[in-house]
């Protein structure tokens, strides 16, 4: 499928709105993604209002595509609707736990990827903002998310105004395992990461960041232990507040 | 996209193998899915050996498609490879925490959906087995998964030998929210679930299960509080054993 094969993340968009009909059609089609027990444990918040984008911006570290894209979508794990339905139908729900959160998360992320595929096949560009689970508490407040709803993925969408080079991927043999997991030897690791480490842009990153290795950019600058541990605390607290911790 | 619009879960497959080239090509293309910081925090275990399918069967409650499909894929959140690379490159990783598990989970599930889309566009049928996170401990043992690897999704794949009716979906208005989450009133819930509850197959389910409402089939039979809480315990224990709990 060419739109998947040639995919790149798009961060710059034309000043052109996405018609409601188009967006709703893509979302409706995306709901065909597999969903556990056909429960559809997700909600999607559509942000078009510039004032709302500004309010979301701090949670996403003010990445410019958030305010520049015509449409921002926040995909949430949602057990609120289902639990309300159960209670209204004399059924006693038991979904305030980690397993249910993971079930809803898988539903929501399958939907997110399905939407991206459809949007890109329709000529739109998307950017996945991983920051959503870094600051779920802030997003919950801005979007007014009730208990049993947790934001997991934010996608900015618009008509592409750039065509950046495709990013590299690890070789297939580095990711798939036949029949059982065969753990990586030091030689395997060297071989699997050789191409990534050889790329001029990655060598340039190492140079401008004054690190010794490419891996140190990840551990010391982009995704640090301190940062991850602090954000894990927020995430655990959010699971508790949103009632997924019984 | 017709293959998404017309999608249905396929549980019966022809006695026809999937060539390695085809499978690898689909997986390679699926790796174009967005991945956080281009870290590709996932692994895929390919099961073709009937003996291995038999060993996986109990973890999936002996659902027949597991042993009948030519190929079973287990998609895992994987920080093992990345951490090994960091350590081999004088970089001190800090990924033994819940946030990192969620980052890897999102990567793995985006990949899973992307693979399903590509497989279905190529004429294959798939079934998503939600049982994977019910019994991660058993799957870890059978597939020999090391620390920092957790199975999240299992997909059975083969050439379709059935064309079941499409399942229903909730109306768009029940799932999307404009600008902020607008919580559901009792009338909203009635309206959103009316079509689902009106379907003859769902009325039939209620009849044969001797429940009063459709919701009770979910809470009392399919996804019970006791079951979810027991499986949450296993999942928490698995996170601890696989080192995602610091």
Summary, kept brief:
The first copy, chain A, is built from 11 helices and 5 strands. Chain A has 246 residues and is of the alpha+beta class. Chain A has a domain at 2-165: 3-Layer(aba) Sandwich (NADH Oxidase), CATH 3.40.109.10.
Could you explain the architecture of this structure?
The structure is a homodimer of 246-residue chains. Chain A has a domain at 2-165: 3-Layer(aba) Sandwich (NADH Oxidase), CATH 3.40.109.10. In chain A, 47% of the residues lie in helices and 13% in strands. Chain A has 11 helices and 5 strands, in the order H-H-E-H-H-E-H-H-E-H-E-E-H-H-H-H. Chain A has a 4-stranded antiparallel sheet, with helices on both faces. In chain A, helix 2 packs across helix 6. The termini of chain A are far apart. Chains A and B meet through helix 2, strand 1, helix 5, helix 6 and strand 4 of A and helix 2, strand 1, helix 5, helix 6 and strand 4 of B. Chains A, B: It holds the Pfam family Nitroreductase. Chains A, B: Keywords: Flavoprotein, FMN, NADP, Oxidoreductase. Chains A, B: Belongs to the flavin oxidoreductase frp family.
């Amino acid at each position: 499928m060419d739109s998947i094969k040639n995919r790149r993340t798009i961060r710059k968009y034309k000043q052109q709105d996405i018609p409601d009909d188009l967006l709703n059609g893509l979302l409706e089609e995306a709901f065909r993604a597999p969903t556990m027990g056909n429960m559809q444990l997700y909600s999607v918040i559509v942000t078009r209002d510039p004032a709302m984008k500004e309010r979301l911006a701090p949670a996403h570290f003010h990445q410019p595509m958030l305010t520049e894209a015509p449409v921002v979508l926040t995909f949430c794990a949602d057990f609120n609707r289902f639990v309300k339905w159960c209670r209204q139908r004399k059924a006693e729900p038991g979904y305030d736990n980690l397993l249910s959160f993971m079930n809803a998360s898988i539903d929501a992320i399958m939907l997110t990827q399905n939407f991206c595929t459809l949007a890109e096949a329709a000529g739109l560009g998307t950017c996945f903002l991983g920051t959503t689970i870094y600051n779920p508490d802030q997003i919950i407040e801005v979007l007014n998310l009730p208990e049993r709803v947790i934001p997991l993925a934010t996608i900015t969408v618009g008509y592409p105004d750039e065509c950046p080079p495709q990013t590299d991927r690890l070789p297939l043999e580095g990711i798939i395992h036949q029949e059982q997991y065969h753990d990586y030897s030091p030689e395997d690791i060297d071989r699997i990461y050789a191409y990534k480490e050889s790329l001029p842009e990655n060598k340039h990153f190492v140079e401008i960041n004054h690190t010794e290795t490419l891996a140190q950019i990840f551990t010391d600058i982009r995704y640090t232990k301190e940062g991850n541990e602090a954000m894990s605390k927020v995430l655990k607290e959010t699971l508790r507040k949103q009632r997924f911790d019984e």
